[in-house]
Amino acid sequence: MLQLLQDDPWLAPYENDLNTRYSYFSDELNRIKKSYGSLKDYAGRHLELGFQYDSSQKGWWYREWAPAAHSLALIGDFNNWDDQA
């Protein structure tokens, strides 16, 4: 039994739902740790996604995580708002 349920008996009617959610959380945390080493490393993705300057290559890079996207475009006045540029 989850400690939360022991601490708050009013949650007893929701025990199955809470156990299911905790199981999902635990599985995801294990997947993250296996893939990234730790939750901290996973949470640091902002350091590699978005606009980042690479001093060794002396340039700006843009990276995005969009696993279900069919296409992505970076548009602005620098390319006349052309999504094919």
Summary keywords:
38% helix; alpha+beta; two-stranded antiparallel ribbon; 85 residues; elongated
Give a verbal description of the structure.
The protein is an alpha+beta fold and 85 residues long. Strands 1-2 form a two-stranded antiparallel sheet. The longest helix is centred in the first third of the chain and has 22 residues, at 15-36. Helix content is 38%, strand content 12%. It has helices spanning 3-7, 15-36, 39-43; strands at 50-54, 59-63.
Q: What is the makeup of the main sheet?
A: 2 strands, antiparallel
Kindly state the number of beta strands. 2
Structural class by SSE content = alpha+beta
**What is the terminal separation in angstroms?**
57 Å
Helices, by number, come to 3
Which consecutive residue ranges, at least 5 long each, have pLDDT under 50? Answer: none
Give the fraction of residues assigned to helices.
25-40%
Q: How big a fraction of the residues is strand?
A: 5-15%
Q: Kindly provide the radius of gyration, computed on alpha-carbon positions and rounded to a whole number of angstroms.
A: 21 Å
**Average of pLDDT:** 93
Sheet with the most strands: spatial strand order: 1-2
What is the 3D shape?
A: elongated
Give the SSE string.
HHHEE
